[in-house]
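Appendix B, Record 12. Input sequence as logged:
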Amino acid sequence: MTSTPPRLSKKQRALAVLAELKQLYPEAPCSLDFETPLQLLVATVLSAQCTDARVNLVTPALFARFPDAPAFAAADVREIEELIRSTGFYRNKAKNIHAACRRIVEVYDGEVPRSMPELLTLAGVARKTANVVLAHAFGINAGVTVDTHVKRLANRLGFTTHDDPVKIEQDLMKLLPQPDWENWSIRLVYHGRAVCDARKPACDRCTLALHCTTFKRSQPKGRKASGIMENAV
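Logged structural output:
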């Protein structure tokens, strides 16, 4: 008689998902184009409610006109608005970028600060933006970036029950090794775009399916799916 394998804990499942994501998406670079920490900060602010592809179309002209924080701080906000109009919510984004750069010039000598508390004092910067900047501009994994894809997949996989991004981040930080915090987010974004769609997730071709509590609940009792660990509950 074959014994039933032990069920995996939530942390074990998270590590199994992490390993699978690394195989699926071995390269996980930031999809925003930038050359400096300030450019990444601005691009991340612009990416709110906008695709990274659209941001990358806008930023070359924007950064040519305003190459650094002093240039943005001295700018006419209306000119910033015109250059970023196609990213949506452009008035609020322009106001925040201008105010953030003024503070960077006045308080941080024109350099983007390298700590979470300092970044959070900048207009338009919450933990999502701060995590992206710290990880990709400075190599500091201060937290887990939680965007709409990460929020959706973390809930579907059963790693959190929260809707608040800060609480989701706290849950994920407990489950994952710190060096993988940021690239976990990027890989989940890739998977959300490619497989785990918001409206119609492709569970039939998802190699994470039996690590996913949502998928498990959707299966008729007693049904087994081939090719994926059966004890990943």
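The first helix runs from residue 10 to 24.
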